[in-house]
Amino acid sequence: MMRRLQQVGRMLPMLVMVALLLTGCGDPYLSALQPKGPVAGMQYDLIKLSVIIMLGVFTVVIVIFTYVLIRYRKRKGDNSIPEQIEGNHKLEIIWTVIPFILLIVLAIPMVSTTFTLAKDYSNDKDAVQVKVTGHQFWWEFEYPDLKINTAQELYIPVNKKVYLSLEAADVIHSFWVPALGGKKDTNPGMTNHMWLESTVEGTFQGRCAELCGPSHALMDFKVKVVSQEEFDKWVVKMTKGENAPAENKAVATQGDEIFKQSCVSCHAVDGNGGKIGPDLTNFGNRQTVAGVLPNDKKHVAEWLKDPESVKPGNLMPNLKLQDDQVDALVEYLSSLKRQ
Ligand code: CUA
Predict the structure, then answer these.
(1) What is the C-alpha to C-alpha distance for residues 281 and 266, in angstroms, rounded to an integer?
(2) Number of the ligand 1 atom closest to the C-alpha atom of 134
(3) Looking at the structure, do residues 51 and 166 belong to the same domain, yes or no?
């Protein structure tokens, strides 16, 4: 017995360390445990309620179990069998009624939250409508009312409902912004819906939460929550804005030529071009290239030279570009900055 206790005692520091480590699993931009909006808030409340009920049941069962284990253990020299009872009505009623009450306590907020989360805001003039399409391995965001098509960064105004229509272009993906709300699958040939709202401004990390191919883990995106004023400015920039002048205009023009020859069948800029790859109208404003590398000239070049090494299994072909062609394209792409 003493040895057992000593063993448990030795494990205690490790358990404490694991607990401390796990408290670090809550980066505010990527944590369902630090909700930043009503959807994530309601879901977090349900998690808390069910965990509290679970811990309550667990504690009561463990206490009774431990008591019985000690009180009725086999003692040396005592071979008597304790009084056998069964069919105790009072006890049976108690352990039927208690779980029933607990289920009701759990079911009422669960059902009411489910209906609140399933509300349809597709005709709500105040809500921002966004069509989300999951692609291997990037995210497309279309604002049908605002005539904006963009990728990888979802701009939304703070304190406003955003109604998402979710689809997939190829295989099943799952749209997930932990700080703002639970995940929702995007399926080919079928539209799912969800709404989100953020009560704070900031950048929140989004992830694909459905195994969708070799670069599933790299299928990140960002949600940029800005003030209404800033959002309106962004809309104007995206629809009527001009690109910033390129640092090296001659090289950028060269890049533009290459783009028109080799890239435009898949990528659109300002509404001209294919829709197979992400729209690049505001590429220079984005934080990342391919969703995972920092968006600077070095990494854009790295991506153009060998897309497969950055994001295995993606559709972008290796164009086998010469170094000067890469430099020209990099210059052109970096100039696609809306101001
Ligand atoms: Cu898309 Cu995982």
Answers:
(1) 13
(2) 1
(3) yes
- At residue 236, the 3 state secondary structure works out as helix
Q: Copy the structure tokens of residue 96.
A: 């039927």
Residue 210 CA, ligand 1 centroid: distance in Å: 5
R_g over Cα of the chain: 28
Q: Is residue 239 in a domain?
A: no
Q: Are residues 161 and 289 in the same domain?
A: no
C-alpha distances (whole Å) from 270 to each of 128, 138, 281, 316, 317 are 21, 19, 5, 20, 22
pTM above 0.90, yes or no: no
Tell which residue, 176, 177, 167, has the closest CA to residue 134.
167
What CATH number does residue 144 fall under? 2.60.40.420
Q: Kindly state if the Cβ of 135 falls inside 6 Å of ligand 1.
A: no
User: Strands 138-143 and 173-177, how do they pair?
Assistant: unpaired
Q: CA 198, 200, 203, 207 torsion: positive or negative?
A: negative
273 lines ligand 1 (CB under 6 A): no
Identify the helix (H) or strand (E) that includes residue 211: none
Taking alpha carbons only, the member of 319, 318, 317, 315 closest to residue 215 is 315
Residue 7's pLDDT band (cuts 50, 70, 90): confident
Closest residue to atom 1 of ligand 1, CA basis: 173
Q: How far apart are the first and last CA of the chain?
A: 73
109 lies in which domain range? 28-69+90-227
Question: Could you give the CA distance from residue 269 to residue 271 in angstroms, rounded to a whole number?
Answer: 5
Q: How confident is the model at residue 20 (pLDDT cuts 50, 70, 90)?
A: low
Atom of ligand 1 nearest to the CA of 173: 1
Distances (CA, A) of 78 to 73, 74, 75, 82: 10, 7, 5, 11
Distance between Cα 185 and ligand 1 center (Å): 10
User: Distance from the CA of 205 to the center of ligand 1, in angstroms?
Assistant: 14
